[in-house]
Write a structure and sequence with these properties.
heterodimer, A: mainly alpha, 0% strand, B: seven-stranded antiparallel β-sheet, elongated
Chain lengths: 324, 551
């Protein structure tokens, strides 16, 4: 069962990789309506020529139909990307379930399992977002990139064989505290993607044409990205707050104090304060949205620091990372 | 601290009086402090100021690490210590930030609390003259009962409604501000809870070996370390006693612990005696204190028989060294032995001490330096015997877990041999005296704590969470309806029946408001006539404007 879980993780990474490439294809084909007819004809001709060397027999027809064809291909690539993401999410879920069955407990006992679950939450939430706002599909390129990187890091660097929980973790609070933390982390992870995309897109819309901004040429409108960023963070923040409070209640029972400035606690305090700052900054009209969004990104960096930095560099009571 | 759009403007100052410069400065500083920008900066500073506390070792978390840091960085550490870097969360700078932040918070929520109470008691405002200027606008056929029917529909949907003649004003979503204020107020209570805990709380750490003679009672002297809040005296500690009867630990093959259970007898402060079990994650809750299981280990029972045939037994705990196999080291000291029964005099130079390693599962072959498993599968005690003046009578404080090395260096204590003892084995020393390893007693390390602020902390955190959700998901909005008088001269297809003009104003960011408004208008318009006649008309601004102009 454990080996099956490992294989499913590999397949999930592959699926995300396919999704990323399809998103990239969609992105590269772009929005045909925005192009000139001549440009579209040239592109189609070159593409076919490269593929088969047959240019004369191609019914180029009117330029408009060629552009339509490009648009159709772009749409097809986008649909393939979404299907691959969904397939990846299913495989990913399968990996989690089999891991949990093999360990006979919830699969949140170490850093590998934590990252695996958090990324799955991120992908699942992304599919929900897509369901409700299909026009944001192109954001998938960045999301799948992040997923491939994180899941692959989990498998290559953080991998830990299955072991039962230490007694300190053996409590129903484990399910309450860790599930909510991992859930909030997954949503924050997803929220960081439109945050970065917004900053690039906002720069692009303001007329900047230097490197990172040009990437945002075909992203959804900045306002929509910003709204998604806020919605995700506003959703994740109370969950995170609950998770921290649940952690404090558990810490009181396990270690005798609700709060003791253990490195993990300190960093979740930092994340909480920064995300609270983001929500306040966004609700304040005099603070520019760019500044607020930078705060959201800073918040996510502190989450990353808490996950990787604290587990690897600091000694503390939360030393369940499983790395030696 | 969210933006409130209708905060009353500060009262204009009297123009003729010269302002007092000091008062002006104070007022400006207060305004600065309670501004959102300052609060944001303070929040960010708070986050940044918390970082050193996680990077540098903290006395409150791990005092040994602080000592190690001083050894490793002899130049830097005292400087850092002076600025409070090893007690970062109690330091002046950290306290300054959060106290300023909370002052700013209180300065911000107090007037808002007042405004909100006022808003809760006041009625929704009168409809503006031009409803078509509002973000949402529609014109629909009036329901049969006019304004009363509209008000009824709104009330059913839990709007706060006021009818003024032909006009209906309604408001909804007070929960947002209520939640917001609850959230911020409970933050203040969380801080109060923390303060109560640190002023009136106390805690102590204790190592407790099994057995009646090792039972401990809750007095300050019995703790290895104790910390009393500034408002707690030694006499305030409740007088209970605890005896460890048994301790059970189970481990996996890898040595990872799986299960702990401590069985104790408790004599409560009121005289009652009871048996109790507790473990990690399920502390022993006593009246006025909680007892937490932090760790466990073994106390080897060592019997020494001196040259006069007198025996003494030590079951002093050996401290674990931090490895998986629970390799423990410690000292069994016998200062009061070799007392001549004839004269009753003790030769201080014939004191005995045995320092050594205890291995719960000794390896099959030498070196016997590390235990292979935390349970006692092959217990062995690796002892080094010392004879001489242990220096215990000099009154110089030293560790009870290791031999005073000054005495060894001074030649006052001499090593007389080394031996690996199995359980039950006896070792005959060069002077004919014997040491016997009888077995072990389990010991546990305990943290005993009392935190009077914890209930307040729990309650205020729960309220905080509820308030936070109200504040994030609540949406304040207003709608207005005006029943327009029938215009018999217009010759409209409605045959002179009256129309209703509706306007909606989201007062906070609310993307779904257009849909909600459309539904509301449909519900009211659907009350009598069909939509075809007058219908929902989101773009009805021109028509309504034209009519208004014609009147």
């Amino acid at each position: 069962m454990s080996a099956l879980s490992d294989q499913l993780v590999s397949f999930a990474i592959l699926a995300y990789l396919v999704a990323m490439i399809s998103h990239a294809v969609e992105y590269a084909l772009g929005n045909s309506r925005a192009r000139s007819v001549a440009h579209a004809r040239e592109l189609v001709g070159a593409g076919v020529g490269a593929a088969g060397g047959v240019t004369s027999g191609v019914p180029v027809g009117t330029g408009a139909s060629a552009a339509e064809r490009t648009a159709r291909r772009a749409r097809l690539a986008g649909l393939v990307a979404v299907a691959a993401t969904a397939l990846g999410a299913l495989l990913h879920l399968g990996a989690l379930v089999t891991r949990g069955l093999a360990a006979d407990r919830m699969p949140w006992g170490n850093m590998y399992e934590f990252v695996l679950t958090g990324t799955w939450i991120g992908v699942a939430a992304w599919l929900v977002v897509l369901w409700q706002r299909p026009q944001l599909r192109r954001l998938g390129l960045f999301l799948t990139l992040v997923m491939v990187l994180l899941v692959a890091t989990a498998e290559l660097v953080l991998y830990t064989p299955i072991v039962p929980l230490v007694p300190a973790l053996n409590s129903y609070w484990f399910v309450i505290h860790v599930s909510t933390i991992v859930f909030a982390s997954g949503i924050f992870l997803l929220g960081a993607v439109p945050a970065v995309a917004f900053l690039m897109r906002a720069g692009y819309e303001q007329g900047r044409r230097s490197f990172p901004y040009t990437l945002a040429k075909r992203l959804p409108a900045a306002a929509a990205l910003e709204r998604l960023t806020f919605t995700l963070h506003a959703f994740a923040f109370p969950v995170f707050t609950f998770a921290v409070i649940a952690g404090a209640i558990w810490a009181e029972a396990a270690w005798g104090r609700p709060w003791g400035w253990d490195p993990k606690e300190t960093w979740s305090f930092i994340s909480w304060v920064i995300y609270a700052g983001y929500l306040h900054a966004r609700a304040t009209p005099s603070v520019r949205r760019n500044v607020a969004t930078w705060l959201a990104i800073a918040g996510f960096l502190t989450m990353l620091m808490n996950l990787f930095g604290v587990n690897i560099f600091f000694e503390g009571l939360h030393s369940y990372g499983g790395l030696d | 601290m969210t933006a409130v759009d209708d905060r009353p403007a500060p009262p204009a100052e009297a123009p003729r009086r010269r302002p007092n410069p000091l008062l002006g400065l104070l007022r400006n500083s207060w305004r600065q402090l309670t501004s959102m920008r300052t609060a944001l900066v303070l929040l960010f500073l708070l986050a940044v100021a918390a970082i050193p506390g996680s990077v540098l070792p903290q006395r409150g978390v791990n005092p040994e690490d602080v000592r190690d840091y001083f050894v490793a960085h002899p130049e830097l550490a005292p400087v850092l210590d002076r600025i409070g870097a090893f007690e970062a969360f109690g330091s002046v700078w950290f306290s300054a930030i959060y106290l300023l932040l909370f002052t700013s918070l209180i300065g911000c929520i107090a007037p808002r609390l007042r405004d909100h109470v006022r808003a809760l008691r006041s009625k929704p405002p009168a409809a503006p003259k031009r409803l078509d200027r509002l973000p949402q606008h529609a014109v629909l056929a009036a329901p049969r009962d006019g304004a009363a029917a509209i008000a009824e529909t709104l009330r059913r949907r839990r709007w706060r409604v006021v009818v003024r003649g032909d006009e209906v004003s309604a408001e909804k979503g007070y929960l947002k501000e209520t939640g917001n204020l609850l959230f911020h107020s409970s933050l203040v209570f969380v801080l109060v809870g923390v303060a109560l805990g640190s002023w009136y709380g106390w805690s102590g750490n204790k190592l407790l070996v099994a057995g009646e003679e090792n039972a401990f009672c809750n007095t300050r002297q019995q703790y290895a370390e104790s910390k009393l809040g500034p408002r707690v005296g030694s006499a305030d500690l409740p007088g209970f006693c605890i005896r460890l009867d048994d301790f059970e630990a189970r481990f996996l093959e890898s040595g990872q612990p799986e299960f702990f259970d401590a069985e104790v007898t408790v004599d409560e402060a009121d005289g009652g005696r009871r048996q109790a079990n507790f473990s990690v994650n399920s502390p022993l809750r006593l009246d006025g204190a909680n007892v937490y299981l932090l760790g466990h280990g073994y106390a080897p029972v060592i019997r020494y028989t001196d040259r006069f045939g007198k025996s003494q037994t030590s079951n002093f705990p050996f401290l674990t060294t931090g490895d998986v196999g629970l390799t423990s080291e410690g000292l069994a000291a016998f200062p009061d032995i070799n007392v001549d029964p004839a004269t009753g005099e003790r030769d201080a130079n014939l004191q005995m001490a045995f320092s050594g390693l205890y291995l719960p599962t000794a390896p099959a072959a030498a070196p016997f330096a590390r235990s292979e498993y935390p349970a006692e599968r092959n217990p062995a005690l690796n002892l080094v015997a010392y004879r001489g003046n242990l220096g215990l009578d000099a009154g110089i404080p030293g560790s009870v877990y290791e031999l005073d090395q000054r005495q060894v260096r001074a030649g006052k204590v001499r090593e007389v041999g080394t031996k690996l003892l199995r359980k039950g084995e006896t070792w005959k020393l060069d002077d004919g005296t014997t040491v016997e390893f009888l077995g072990t007693e389990p010991y546990i390390t305990l943290s005993v704590r009392y935190d009077p602020g914890s209930t307040l902390l729990l309650v205020s955190s729960a309220v905080l969470l509820v308030g936070l959700m109200g504040s994030l998901f609540g949406r304040r909005r207003r709608v207005f309806f005006r029943v327009l008088p029938a215009d018999p001269t217009s010759g409209s297809p409605t045959g002179g029946s009256s129309l209703v003009e509706a306007g909606g104003l989201p007062r906070t960011d609310h993307p779904g408001f257009a849909d909600e408004f459309a539904q509301l208008v449909a519900a009211i318009g659907g009350d009598g006539r069909s939509d075809e006649e007058a219908g929902v008309d989101p773009d009805g601004g021109d028509r309504a404007g034209a009519r208004e102009g014609a009147e």
